Each structure stands twice: as C-alpha cells, then as structure tokens.
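Researcher: Structure for this, please.
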Amino acid sequence: MMLGALLGLWLALWVASDTPIGRTLQHWMVERPAARLSRISRGQVLLILTLTGVAVALIWLLENDGRMLIAMGLPDVLSLAVAIDAASLLDLALVAVIAVSTIRVRAVVNWLRPRATRRPRARSIRVRRARPPANDDEERPALAA
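Model: Predicted structure, token format:
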C-alpha cells in the first residue's frame, strides 16, 4: 500500500512537473530532503557508524541480552549524544589521533618492526684480572697463629 502511494506521488511529480502541484511536490519530495541531507556532517556519520558498530558487537557477543540492552539503553545513549553533540567530540578525538600518529610515525614504525631484524649489540670482551698475591707466598708451611 505504501509502495503504491509512493509510486503514485513519483508519477505525479514526473507528469505534472510544470504545474503548481508539481512544483509543490518537487519542493517537499526533492528539495527539502536534499537540503536536510546536505547538512549532515562527517562527525554525525562517524557517530552513527560508531553506535551501529557498538550495537552490532553487543548483539553478536551477548545475543539475547545484547538485544535487550540495546532496546533499553540505545535511546538514552542517542539522546545523550545529541545533548553534548558527541559528533564534534568524535571529530576532535580523530583529529588528535591523526595528529599524534603523523608526528610519531617513526616511533610507530620502530615499534611495529620485529625485534629479530635488529642487529645484536656488540658485546664487550671480558678481561680477567690477575689475583693479588697471597700473603703466605713462602716455601714453608703456614703456621696457625
């Protein structure tokens, strides 16, 4: 039923494009949704992808309990995200991570490089020291004092 109504509206939009009704349909069905969609920022997309990933992970790991947790808790999480505009916080976090990673590329590469490919340190040769001479170096047997 809904599909038939949408197809009828689309047909009316296509047939009556130059009439006042066609212009009204064009405004409400094309221009307004396009204007709303163009205001979606990158941070909002990242927020939705993050929340979707968390929801999928909860359902996958916790099965039925995860579904119940999402059904009860996700509306609160979404309202909190809207209240503090978590999309901008995600943007800031990603910018910080990218900035740190570009500054420390060499350190990250050295950290990821396997330790087996490093050259072993040259060992210093151990020198044996001569013992100091004993106090009883005479030929006769020692006497107990």
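Researcher: Any notable elements?
Model: Residues 42-62 form the longest helix (21 residues). The two ends are 120 Å apart (CA to CA).
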